[in-house]
TrEMBL record, chain A:
Start and end residues of each ABC transporter domain: 5-232
InterPro entries attached to this UniProt entry: AAA+_ATPase (IPR003593), ABC_transporter-like_ATP-bd (IPR003439), ABC_transporter-like_CS (IPR017871), P-loop_NTPase (IPR027417)
Single GO molecular function: ATP binding
Residue ranges the record marks as coiled coil: none
Protein name as it appears in the record: ABC-2 type transport system ATP-binding protein
Record-stated family: Belongs to the ABC transporter superfamily.
Top-rank lineage group of the source organism: Bacteria
Gene3D superfamilies membership: P-loop containing nucleotide triphosphate hydrolases
Keywords for the protein's UniProt record, in alphabetical order: ATP-binding, Nucleotide-binding, Transport
From TrEMBL, chain B:
UniProt superkingdom: Bacteria
Official protein name in the record: ABC-2 family transporter
Lineage: Bacteria, Bacillati, Bacillota, Clostridia, Lachnospirales
Organism: Kineothrix alysoides
Keywords: Membrane, Transmembrane, Transmembrane helix
Membrane-spanning ranges: 16-37, 57-77, 98-120, 140-161, 168-187, 214-235
CDD domains the record matches: ABC-2_lan_permease-like
Length: 254, 241
């Protein structure tokens, strides 16, 4: 089994606050890895560290055997990413925005249309990005991540702001990608039902610590053993987080 | 070259080119109108005709240029922060320092165009309106180069400042403060004040001679390089947090 992304005791501290605390992830090649956690758990910070947007305080990570910052350019060539909110040039159209990324990635011109079509934005490609609705901006951000069909995708809350149809479309798209061109996806979302439908592996983060990592069936087995409701991901997730929060409260009282 | 072409595409609809070209046109128009209206008064000053042409008109042209540089530098980074596009750039296999350098080159090239345009106007005035035989092309070219180089520290400094603040009003405020404090201190002879980039830019405007001051020229070059180096270092080393 080949892990395409591995992290070793990844830690990020901001003065007195530890956002990510010794997280060791193992993401299999060709899998969809659902990265779950409540708000402020450290999901986005972990993803930002993998993309070099934030420096690590401690630990290390390897992406396809390469390391930051020495292999920054090679790593980023292999990753399509979408972090927190869409990033775009408000003064350019959707198509022009993608064309900027296309030129940086040295891709053929046809890749812009391909990406627009993948996210269902082809008829709005010539509209200024600042005039897009939130959902359209979200799709544009996703199109930017999918441009050139990169082997690794890091998607942080990609369905935020989308309507139910949009969520369904993006979910189907994300689910189809590993089969379509054998990519690996690290995806975070609060929509646990969505993750349950698409993820092969799950990582659960709370207060910067990784509480669980493994396959969905392992999570179900662990939940049953702990006498948690194991009927769906949402219940299992809530039980694990609640248990951890209670333990933290007890620790704090002591 | 590829990076520069990409950067030029990104400038589309930002108004950076428009602002600087407008400054060039306004500066040239000001020179024509001012000399047309005040010709007799200006030529009656106890100065050589070339000094009158170059120093007496430069004050307002310099103010226009200064505001053009401040606004253009703010706008060239505003587009990166507005839709959070800078975050995307940090996630792409591209050198952020390379992008910074391209922005510096674009502003420099546009500003060179502005200065050329304004000096073409001065050349025309000099050839047609100065007393016969008093126009010296060499003096005009030297002064054009001098005024361009003494403006570069402000350009380099403003690009550095605007690259560090997401809110455009902060670099704009720093630019205006720089202008006001520069105006207040420009006539001082204290050499220490030359570390203030706006004072350097104001120096040719408060001088009575069109002859370059080599001390100011050397300080200009040093400051331009220092601000550029700091900007490149920050773009390369500081992460998007």
């Amino acid at each position: 089994m080949k892990y395409i992304i591995t992290t070793e005791q990844l830690t990020k501290k901001y003065k007195n606050f530890t956002a990510v605390n010794g997280v060791s992830l193992h993401i299999r090649q060709g899998s969809i890895y659902g990265f779950l956690g409540p708000n402020g758990a450290g999901k986005s910070t972990t993803m930002k560290m993998l993309l070099g947007l934030t420096t690590l305080t401690e630990g290390s990570f390897a992406i396809d055997g390469k390391h930051f910052p020495a292999d920054r350019l090679t790593i980023l060539k292999e990753i399509g990413s979408f972090i927190e909110s869409p990033s775009f040039y408000a003064n350019l159209t959707g198509r022009e925005n993608l064309d900027i990324i296309r030129q940086i990635l040295e891709l053929p011109k046809s890749s812009v249309d391909d990406a627009l079509e993948l996210v269902g934005l082809e008829e709005f490609g010539n509209r200024l990005a600042k005039k897009y609705s939130l959902g359209m901006k979200q799709r544009l951000g996703l199109a930017g991540a999918l441009l050139g069909r990169p082997p690794i995708l890091i998607l942080d809350e990609p369905t935020n702001g989308l309507d139910p149809t949009g969520i369904h479309e993006i979910r189907s798209l994300v689910k189809s990608l590993p089969t379509l061109y054998n990519c690996t996806i690290l995806i975070s979302s609060h929509m646990l039902s969505e993750i349950e439908l698409i993820a092969d592996d799950i990582g659960i983060l709370n207060h910067g610590r990784l509480l669980f990592e493994g396959r969905m069936e392992d999570l179900r087995r662990d939940a049953s053993q702990e006498s948690f409701a194991a009927d769906n991901l949402e219940n299992m997730f809530l039980s694990i987080i609640e248990k951890d929060n209670l333990a933290r409260k007890k620790e704090a009282k002591l | 070259m590829r990076m520069l072409a990409i950067e030029l595409q990104k400038e589309k609809r930002t108004g950076v080119t428009g602002v600087l070209l407008a400054v060039g046109v306004l500066g040239a128009a000001y020179a024509f109108i001012n000399f047309f209206v005040r010709r007799e008064t200006l030529l009656a000053l106890p100065l050589a005709p070339m000094d009158v042409l170059l120093t007496q008109l430069y004050g307002m042209i310099m103010v226009l240029n200064m505001f053009g540089i401040v606004v253009a530098a703010c706008m060239i980074y505003e587009m990166e922060f507005k839709g959070n596009a800078i975050k995307r750039i940090h996630m792409l296999p591209v050198s952020v320092a390379g992008m910074y350098l391209c922005k510096f080159l674009i502003l420099t090239m546009l500003f060179l165009l502005v200065v050329s345009f304004q000096n073409l106007a001065l050349m025309r005035i000099g050839m047609n309106d100065l007393p016969k035989g008093s126009f010296e092309m060499k003096t005009l070219i030297i002064f054009a180069g001098y005024s361009f180089l003494t403006s570069m520290p402000v350009l380099s400094f403003m690009l550095l400042v605007s690259s560090r603040f997401e809110n455009m009003w902060i670099p704009l405020g720093i630019g205006v403060s720089g202008f006001l404090s520069g105006m207040a201190l420009a006539t001082s002879d204290a050499e220490l004040l030359l570390i203030h980039p706006f004072i350097i830019m104001l120096k040719p405007a408060v001088a009575m001679s069109a002859q370059p001051d080599y001390m100011i020229l050397i300080v200009s070059l040093i400051e331009t390089v220092i601000f550029l180096e700091i900007g490149l270092w920050m773009a390369e080393k500081l992460r998007y947090e």
